[in-house]
Design brief:
Radius of gyration: 13 Å
Structural class: mainly alpha
Shape: globular
Largest sheet: 2 strands, parallel
Order of helices and strands: EHHHHHHE
Helix content: 25-40%
Oligomer: single chain
Length: about 120
């Protein structure tokens, strides 16, 4: 089964986990319900919320969940993934710069990321 390709997804700044470093990052952090940008994309792709709990990266999802995802999300050595995660987790970057950079990175994969709310 081929994964459907989401052309756009939305990140809610109020629950967006970013800028805390990679050790604190998670697709969905159980303690506070915050998600990194990849967690938001996984949800948009149809992965169930409970499957994301406390996992650091999409390639750690079950095979059944990975079937929902485009290839670039589950290839650990994909160049885009190697840029997205550090950009999301970088402690020294402003949110404005982080959002601009993430928009460019996801655009390379044909996906638009939209940021809403305040956080």
């Amino acid at each position: 089964m081929m994964a459907r390709k989401v052309k756009e997804f939305t990140v809610d700044r109020a629950t967006w986990l970013r800028g805390e470093g990679s050790a604190q990052s998670s697709l969905l952090r159980e303690q506070d319900g915050k998600m990194c940008c990849l967690g938001f994309l996984c949800l948009a792709q149809g992965v169930q919320r409970r499957c994301l709990l406390n996992l650091p990266v999409p390639d750690m999802l079950s095979a059944a969940s990975q079937k929902h995802l485009p290839a670039f999300l589950v290839k650990p050595k994909d160049a885009t993934m190697g840029d997205i995660m550090p950009t999301n987790d970088n402690r020294s970057q402003t949110d404005k710069k982080r959002e601009r950079h993430l928009k460019r990175l996801f655009k390379r994969q044909g996906v638009a990321i939209k940021f809403v709310g305040e956080g």
